[in-house]
Q: What sequence folds into this?
């Protein structure tokens, strides 16, 4: 029973952390986006509030709270209020299924007068066996918030925006789902953790019975699936309703799309959903095609482990020496070197690697937004159905043939 | 204990939203409630060690079919129905009674034969949740291969049929 | 099962947080007197028509229905992709490839038929 | 081997009764509602109840045939929803009517 409560507590903490992470990425990304666009367009961007304008978004958040809570006439109250809440759910649920760092084994240790059993800690909201299908299913729920918002606002531009957005989302979901079949053919598993472990080694495969090995490259999916990676990334842009696919918000035609009638915190919630979606997109991209938290031969687990062992062993005595004050016996364990601390430090290093990769892709999102012009709606649908879907099919067939030839003996 | 509580929460949610689905006046509300019902059912499937089917339920039912329903309802007249239910007290009572009869027959069958099959207490064993997706795939492509190909053909026919219906005179896309 | 409790906890937490935000916005926002012009839906300054007279192209609906059908075909490929290597190792590689080739042929025929029949044209 | 499933504590009958209740609700919806699209939705509800029964028996018997059957049922249900809605939209475009009563008078 005690371990149950411990587990529930740990899980609850993880949930809160992951959600806070998703919510906190929004002000950061908005700041990066505004500064980045200013940089690209040779302007200044927000630079008055705080250092480099960093607290601009805090000021914005405070402003949002004190905005009027507006409900247009003839709107459907329940659905109108439910739509922004619904916008938060898909991104949060999907992000929690992605492993953020390597799982660590915590051995038995004693703290605060009681013994905490051996425990396997995963840096992941939940280890779900069929991760890919789960993430696809959860993120396909995103269409509801668009449709609900557009319909409940009782505004014809909102309705058009919602229909456009949802038609676009579902069209690109096909290319998205199909480009993942190549990854599944290669790795034969739905589990994110296993996919990452399979990528965490030097690039090596057998080709007509001959072992080809490129020791200096990691075994990343992108080297096997370049076309799939491109299709996946482009489809993800459309799923997030980002430029060049941001037709639902084409200002000149549709005012502001499905959230025309929303203001203040409720509109902010749509933004949290959108940026959360970007975060999920980048994390998925990293997990499928760029090795997740691992860096293959460039940064092996042994290296990091040795490094963190050295850090822990050299720092712990220093702290014990420096803090030459009598502290209670029960806290003594905190400052002693142990295998657990080495493991935790290693996990954090890999988490840093993961975050670094994700940040690169997030910057790509911003960069593309200020580089490419917007598509016309018919071009957008043509691209989705007539270009990306056939290419994704070709990628699937090609992968199947190559896998068949390579693995058959 | 935990799992029983979990089951009862899910079951309550499913029943409440299913009830809302068949009683809400506005068809769009019906569709949204049905979507919530289906999401909860997907989680029930996850709990029943059928994770792949749960995922498919999320992708196909909640993510595609119900979105189609919501979109179609938005294309229709947006005013909610004044009378959502068919009229007639006698026929209404008859309908309720026949539904009750079906439920009685079903529950009778459940409680009479549950012990007979020897399933009520635990059952012989469960499929291993880790291996089910792969076993399911292998079974699908050996034993059920013909049905699988037939379904592919059916989907093609439905796609052609939907376009054809939209083309006929007075259809959705007729000029 | 034990995987599912966190999923539900997270969903519940997100919904709770969302409701909290909506409530905060409702509580702290100013509440000026409502007026007819103000609560009208914003349609670029014209008198708002609302949605009752809105004509929506049925095109969207055809896209949605084709999406469902192709989505299911793609979902059918997932178990195939999972079991592909198992079949190859069992020496049945050509069998599993042929099984999917027939299905893919139907899929490709359907896709190109839709493109040819101009069902996916947007003007 | 400990089984990690919901069924650890609740028996098979709970699932079957839940499924029967869902099926009955769907049936009431089909019989009582007037809007043809809501009737289609009620049919989906009934199909879902049947799926739940399949999955329950599949899990309790350790037999995957039930899950495959659910897969097929989902496919057919989606196809049925697609065609049904296509017909409903076609009729609506022509007669501006979604009442099921009206459909009785369609001839030829």
A:
């Amino acid at each position: 029973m005690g371990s149950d409560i411990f587990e529930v507590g740990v899980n609850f903490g993880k949930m809160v952390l992951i959600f806070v992470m998703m919510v906190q990425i929004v002000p950061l990304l908005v700041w990066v986006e505004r500064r980045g666009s200013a940089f690209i367009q040779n302007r200044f961007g927000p630079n008055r509030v705080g250092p480099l304008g960093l607290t601009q978004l805090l000021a914005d958040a405070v402003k949002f709270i004190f905005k009027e809570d507006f409900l247009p006439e003839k709107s459907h109250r329940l659905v109108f209020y439910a739509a922004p809440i619904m916008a938060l759910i898909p991104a949060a649920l999907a992000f929690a299924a992605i492993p953020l760092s390597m799982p660590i084994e915590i051995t038995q240790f004693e703290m605060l007068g009681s013994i905490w059993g051996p425990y396997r800690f995963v840096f992941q909201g939940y280890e779900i066996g069929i991760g890919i299908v789960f993430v696809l299913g959860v993120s396909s729920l995103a269409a509801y918030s668009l449709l609900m918002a557009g319909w409940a606002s009782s505004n014809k531009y909102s309705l058009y925006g919602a229909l456009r957005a949802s038609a676009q989302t579902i069209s690109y979901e096909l290319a998205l789902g199909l480009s993942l079949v190549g990854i599944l053919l290669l790795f034969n598993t739905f589990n994110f953790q296993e996919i990452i472990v399979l990528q965490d080694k030097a690039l090596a495969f057998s080709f007509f019975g001959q072992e080809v090995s490129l020791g200096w490259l990691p075994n990343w999916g992108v080297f096997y699936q370049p076309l799939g990676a491109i299709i996946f990334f482009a489809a993800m842009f459309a799923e997030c309703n980002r430029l060049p696919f941001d037709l639902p918000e084409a200002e000149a035609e549709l005012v502001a799309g499905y959230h025309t009638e929303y203001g203040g915190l409720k509109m902010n919630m749509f933004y949290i959903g959108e940026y959360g979606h970007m975060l999920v997109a980048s994390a998925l991209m990293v997990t499928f095609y760029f090795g997740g938290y691992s860096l293959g031969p460039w940064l092996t687990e042994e290296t990091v482990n040795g490094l963190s062992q050295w850090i822990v062993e050299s720092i712990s005595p220093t702290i014990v020496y420096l803090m030459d004050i009598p502290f209670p016996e029960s806290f003594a364990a905190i400052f002693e070197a142990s295998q657990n601390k080495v493991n935790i430090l290693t996990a954090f290093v890999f988490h840093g690697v993961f975050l670094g990769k994700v940040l690169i892709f997030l910057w790509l999102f911003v960069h593309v937004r200020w580089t490419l012009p917007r598509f016309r709606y018919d071009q957008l649908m043509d691209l989705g159905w007539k270009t990306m879907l056939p290419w994704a099919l070709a990628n699937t067939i090609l992968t199947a043939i190559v896998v068949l030839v390579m693995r058959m003996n | 204990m935990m799992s029983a509580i979990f089951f009862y929460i899910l079951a309550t949610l499913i029943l409440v939203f299913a009830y809302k689905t068949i009683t809400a006046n506005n068809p769009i509300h019906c569709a949204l409630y049905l979507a919530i019902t289906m999401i909860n059912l997907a989680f029930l499937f996850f709990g029943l060690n059928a994770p792949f089917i749960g995922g498919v339920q999320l992708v196909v039912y909640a993510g595609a079919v119900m979105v189609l329903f919501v979109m179609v309802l938005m294309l229709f007249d947006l005013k909610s129905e004044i009378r959502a239910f068919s009229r007639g007290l006698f026929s209404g009572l008859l309908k309720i009674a026949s539904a009750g009869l079906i439920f009685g027959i079903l529950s009778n069958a459940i409680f009479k034969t549950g012990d007979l099959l020897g399933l009520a207490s635990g059952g012989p064993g469960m499929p291993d949740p880790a291996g089910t997706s792969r076993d399911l795939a292998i079974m699908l492509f050996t034993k059920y291969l013909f049905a699988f190909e037939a379904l592919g053909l059916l989907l093609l026919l439905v796609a052609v049929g939907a376009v054809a219906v939209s083309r006929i005179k007075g259809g959705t896309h007729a000029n | 099962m034990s995987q599912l409790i966190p999923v539900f906890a997270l969903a519940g937490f997100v919904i709770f947080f969302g409701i909290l935000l909506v409530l905060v916005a409702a509580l702290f926002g100013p509440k000026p007197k409502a007026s007819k012009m103000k609560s009208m839906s914003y349609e670029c300054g014209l008198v708002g028509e609302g949605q009752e007279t809105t004509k929506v192209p049925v095109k969207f609906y055809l896209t949605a229905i084709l999406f469902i059908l192709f989505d299911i075909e793609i979902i059918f490929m997932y178990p195939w992709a999972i079991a592909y290597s198992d079949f190859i190792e069992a020496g049945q590689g050509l069998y599993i490839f042929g099984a999917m080739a027939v299905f893919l042929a139907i899929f490709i025929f359907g896709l190109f038929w839709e493109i040819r029949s101009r069902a996916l044209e947007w003007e | 081997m400990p089984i990690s499933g919901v069924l650890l504590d609740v028996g098979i009958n709970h699932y079957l009764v839940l499924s029967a209740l869902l099926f009955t609700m769907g049936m009431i919806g089909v019989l009582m509602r007037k809007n043809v699209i809501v009737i289609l939705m009620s049919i989906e509800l009934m199909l879902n109840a049947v799926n739940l029964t399949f999955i329950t028996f599949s899990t309790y018997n350790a037999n995957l045939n039930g899950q495959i059957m659910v897969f097929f049922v989902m496919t057919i249900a989606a196809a049925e929803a697609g065609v049904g809605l296509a017909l409903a939209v076609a009729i609506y475009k022509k007669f501006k009517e979604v009442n099921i009563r009206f459909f009785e008078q369609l001839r030829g």
Remarks:
- The mean pLDDT of chain A is 81.
